[in-house]
Design brief:
The protein is of the alpha+beta class. It is built from three helices and four strands. The chain has one domain. Strands 2-3-1-4 form a four-stranded antiparallel beta sheet, with helices on one face. Helix 1 packs antiparallel against helix 3. The termini are far apart.
């Protein structure tokens, strides 16, 4: 699980860095906001598979979202900017890595 987390974080960071360098001239400017990856469980939480699945989500750095039905990883790139487009690029890259591992994921964002 640690390998998946590291691969996800590296891909997200690289994508965010590439975006801000190529499209923003390396500057944190433009619209401010947040981006995250949502992981959707496939198993009920009170089953053995569900409990194991949720432990895996936590190992990836995810926490329950406000609905209590999904899990979220905020700013998976860890990139220290406020530009929403940069953070979304990182979240999309993280989601791609997680999808390749078989997770059901979506990317979310909102302006600040």
């Amino acid at each position: 699980m640690q390998d998946i987390k590291e691969k996800m974080q590296q891909a997200a960071h690289d994508a965010a860095h590439k975006f801000i360098t190529q499209h923003m001239g390396g500057e944190d400017r433009g619209a401010c906001g947040f981006a995250w990856v949502t992981l959707w469980p496939e198993h009920k939480g009170n089953t053995k598979l569900g409990k194991a699945e949720r432990r895996g989500f936590e190992a990836l750095g995810a926490r329950k979202d406000w609905t209590g039905k999904a899990w979220m990883i905020w700013n998976p790139s860890g990139y220290p900017v406020q530009n929403i487009d940069t953070l979304e690029a990182g979240a999309r890259a993280a989601a791609d890595v997680l999808r390749a591992q078989g997770y059901k994921v979506s990317v979310g964002s909102r302006l600040d």
